[in-house]
From TrEMBL:
Belongs to the intercrine alpha (chemokine CxC) family. The gene is CXCL10. Residues 1-19 form the signal peptide. SUPFAM superfamilies: Interleukin 8-like chemokines. Transmembrane segments: none annotated. Pfam families: IL8. The keyword Signal applies. This is C-X-C motif chemokine 10-like. InterPro entries: Chemokine_b/g/d, Chemokine_CXC, Chemokine_IL8-like_dom, CXC_Chemokine_domain, Interleukin_8-like_sf. GO terms for biological process: defense response; immune response. Keywords: Chemotaxis, Cytokine, Disulfide bond, Secreted, Signal. One of its GO terms (cellular component) is extracellular space. Residues 25-87 form the Chemokine interleukin-8-like domain.
């Protein structure tokens, strides 16, 4: 193999590692500004990521419908707090509706 081919293979390996989910492990996903409001009809998935020793902030990652674009949402915004509150209410209602088996 010549040196150009070797450099190309090394570049591909670094690109594959950097793009993998393991590369971001231990770092915050939401760096920089976060949205205070996102139209609810555009949200496909709402994910709350708790604080960890590697990232001391709570993160909210929203996946947009159609584009699958991930956007960060400000966890202190009124909309985010309302969505979390509603999800917790729904979660509590569904667990109460399921009869416990002994």
């Amino acid at each position: 193999m010549n040196s150009t081919a070797v450099l190309f293979v090394v570049f591909l390996l670094f690109a594959a590692i950097e793009g993998s989910p393991l590369y971001n492990k231990g770092r915050c996903r939401c760096i920089g500004s976060s949205a205070d409001f996102i139209h609810l009809k555009r949200i496909e998935k709402f994910e709350v990521i708790p604080a960890t020793p590697m990232c001391q902030q709570i993160e909210i990652v929203v996946t947009m419908k159609g584009t699958a674009e991930e956007r960060c949402m400000n966890p202190k915004s009124k909309q985010a707090q309302n969505i979390i509150s509603n999800l917790l209410k729904k979660r509590n209602n569904t667990t109460e509706a399921i009869p416990k088996q002994f």
